[in-house]
Specification:
The chain is mainly alpha-helical and about 200 residues long. It has a domain of about 100 residues. It contains eleven helices and no strands. The longest helix has 23 residues. The relative contact order is 0.09.
């Protein structure tokens, strides 16, 4: 397994401790085992390996899927297999029971957590995964994030992510990201979602 895999995994597992320290090491070992096996299967083209990652307990499923999304999304367009893995990972993220809570915590201020470049990069990866999922869960979560308190990022970041989805009826297109991120733009997004969310496809 590559050093890069272990580095990303270490960051992923350390962002949000999920269980008491006495049991944490054992759960991390189990998670590492599942992610290693999934990585090997994905290298052989077995995208179904992501189902095992999705089945991990608690936030580990979201964190693991984000890791595989990151590894496979930022590649050349001709790498269709990796793009397919990223697309599946993004979809699975939106189906995880703890996804909404995990992602909201990620963007909130948290005492003792430094605002590092690594954290900023992880947040951008998360936004990109929601854009890639391009479904009702992702759009609704981005709208909800605009109203969250104690955020460590501007609401416009979520507006940009939803604008990148290229939704035909949306108030802003992919080429209007700057306007979409303004205070007026954020207000328009909220109003638009209130009127259109019921007709938005689930997947």
């Amino acid at each position: 397994m590559s050093r890069r895999f272990h580095t990303i995994l270490a960051v992923t597992l350390c962002l949000f401790p999920l269980i008491p320290s006495s049991a944490q090491t054992e759960q991390q070992k189990q998670t590492m085992s599942v992610l290693k096996a999934a990585s090997e299967r994905l290298m052989r083209g077995d995208i179904a390996a992501l189902d095992e990652v999705k089945a991990l307990p608690g936030d580990d499923s979201v964190a693991g899927l984000l890791m595989f999304f990151k590894q496979n999304f930022y590649v050349y367009s001709k790498e269709t297999q990796k793009k397919a893995i990223a697309a599946k990972a993004a979809q699975h993220i939106t189906e995880c029971p703890t996804a909404a809570d995990y992602i909201k915590r990620l963007f909130k201020k948290e005492e003792g957590r430094s605002k590092s470049g690594m954290l900023m990069n992880y947040r951008q990866t998360t936004l990109d995964s929601l854009t890639a999922a391009n479904n009702k869960f992702a759009a609704n979560l981005l709208i909800e994030l605009m109203d969250e308190s104690n955020l460590e990022v501007p609401p416009g970041d979520f507006a940009v992510a939803i604008a990148k989805m290229g939704i035909p009826s949306a108030p802003f297109s992919k080429t209007e990201l700057k306007s979409a991120a303004t205070l007026d733009g954020v207000a328009k997004w909220k109003s638009w979602w209130k009127e259109n969310k019921d007709g938005f496809p689930d997947k």
